[in-house]
């Protein structure tokens, strides 16, 4: 679905936050709902209150033990509806924009981008993987990644398969495989 009738600046378009940093814009338009419906089909009405938990997970497990080398933060987040503790749920990955990672805006994207309110009634676990700003050479073994705005790789800084299913930052397949074969890589948070 292409929407071009909402007057908005650069950011995630919502009806619940201010324009500017953290780049979640109040335009009285629920972009999360539109995106989820485009991907998953018709949605059930959103939950009226929190009925799940926000948890942290170790992103190193999805980056051969070195998330920093591919400009990922050590910690990512997931919103897990209570119902997903006992039933099978789909996974939706919500990628923050440049300058929207947790180091830059705290938990604003994770809490306010709009996906969590739709998750319980639509049996969705929402993953919020996190990037980290990189300023060139660093880490061991040394890797040269210039990503000062903590963007997801859209210009090939992680290698030639940056855009593919087996790209360095692609974690859904690894997450799903890990969940099938071992304990979940998610730790309870707060």
Explain what this protein looks like in three dimensions.
- With 190 residues, the chain is an alpha/beta fold.
- The protein has one domain (50-187).
- The chain has 5 helices and 9 strands, in the order E-E-H-E-E-E-H-H-H-E-E-E-H-E.
- The chain has helices at 31-40, 102-105, 108-112, 115-118, 172-181, and strands at residues 12-14, 24-26, 52-58, 75-81, 90-93, 124-128, 134-138, 143-147, 186-187.
- A 5-stranded mixed sheet has the order 5-6-4-3-9.
- The radius of gyration is 17 Å and the shape is globular.
- The protein starts with 11 loop residues before the first strand and ends with a strand.
- The model is unreliable at 178-190 (pLDDT under 50).
């Amino acid at each position: 679905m292409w929407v071009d009738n909402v007057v908005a600046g650069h950011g995630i378009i919502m009806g619940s936050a201010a324009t500017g940093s953290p780049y979640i814009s109040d335009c009285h338009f629920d972009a999360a709902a539109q995106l989820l419906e485009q991907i998953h089909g018709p949605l059930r009405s959103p939950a009226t209150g929190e009925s799940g938990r926000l948890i942290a997970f170790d992103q190193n497990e999805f980056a051969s033990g070195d998330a920093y080398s591919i400009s990922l933060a050590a910690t990512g987040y997931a919103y897990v509806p209570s119902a997903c503790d006992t039933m099978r749920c789909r996974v939706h990955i919500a990628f923050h924009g440049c300058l929207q990672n947790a180091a830059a805006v705290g938990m604003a994207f994770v809490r306010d981008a709009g996906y969590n309110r739709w998750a319980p009634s639509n049996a969705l676990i929402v993953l919020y993987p996190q990037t980290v700003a990189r300023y060139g050479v660093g880490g061991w073994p040394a890797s040269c990644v210039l990503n000062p705005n903590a963007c997801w790789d859209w210009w090939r800084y992680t290698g030639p398969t940056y855009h593919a299913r087996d790209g360095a930052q692609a974690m859904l397949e690894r997450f799903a495989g890990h969940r099938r074969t071992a304990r979940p890589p998610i730790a309870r948070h707060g």
